[in-house]
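Re: that chain you flagged

S.,

Sorry for the slow reply, it's been a week of failed gels. I finally had a moment to sit down with the sequence you sent. For the record, here it is as I used it:
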Amino acid sequence: MKGLECLLRFVDEHKGDDPDRLLLSAKRYPEVDMPLAVDQILARRKVKDKLPTWWANKDVFFPSRISAEQCSGELAATYKQTLVSEGIRMCDLTGGLGVDSYFFSRKVDSLVYLERFASYCDAARHNFKALGADNIEVVNGDSLSALEGKGPFDLFCIDPARRGEGNKRIFALRDCEPDLTALMPDLLEHAPRVIAKISPMADIRQTSALLPWTTEVHVVSVRNECKELLFLMDNERMEDRVNLPITCVNLGSDQAAFKFTLAEEERFPSRVSGDIRAYLYEPNASILKAGAFKAVASCFGLSKLHVSSHLYTSDKLVPDFPGRSFRVEEVIPFTNKRCKTLSRQISQANITVRNFPLSVDELRKQTKIADGGITYLFATTLENGDKILVKTHKI
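Prediction finished late last night. Pasting the structure tokens below so you have them in one place:
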């Protein structure tokens, strides 16, 4: 422990130093495992904004740099905390760095952290003590058999590994480790409820069909970047798949959660406008991921520009729209001739393309418009097939 204390003190004293220079000067500090110290410095830099509670604690130790890259962020972990009840006993089956375990422990009565790698377990014991989480038991193991005598449990949380050989990302549910489709019956024999964190690249409809125990889905974005899909399951499976409740949240913003069901999305009419009105709207990443295209239009009284554009318009401003809102200044027909002279009118803009034949980089190259500024330019296609550029200002 004394060696770890010395290491963490060195990390704190040199947290602003250049890591490469530290590695080159390792001989000056023979008592310090310099590669490990540099890994700690780099890991802490990665979590400064992502995990401020852990970053602020000088005694926290990271078992690897990749653990800081792959762990849950604090906003997402705090949101997951709202999905569990007080006073229960739960188990985090894929403990990892322990971020989710820590935030769950702030609400539940007791928690078992299960992790296959001994080094992560050692770090977790140290970190939970440093963070004052005294209701967590750390267990080194990788299967339900390691939990013998630890139950009963009211809830399991699981985050299947989504990286294969060569650290390659995996998205297919059955290719993840463990395979939830095979494991779920065993899990539900040991606990009545399960929260599974699934890749944000997964298809919600297909995944819910593979996991018929699903009763809720939460699509979680942080500052408009989709981070994870949470599938809430219990042993009283929901047979009516089309009425599966889906909640879309954009953490780090003041936008309210948007809730809908697959049945509502199918039932709502397509509201397509033939023109651009006074205001333009772009739904947040969670709504786009969930596919609530008709639902969001109907709930907020908006019209779509095109069935495939996922941009919306209205005559009057919708103040609480869950996404970005813009005032339309000009609608510019997209032609090669106009593009050649457009930079004289718009020298700088933030460009977004939706249902458009060119990428952002290709459009910048063609128009010579620099990045940045206060103007937002949307390149899109209208229902009649016309290609347009919509010049706007963000509200």
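What I noticed first: Residues 224 and 285 are 5 Å apart (CA to CA).

Talk soon,
D.
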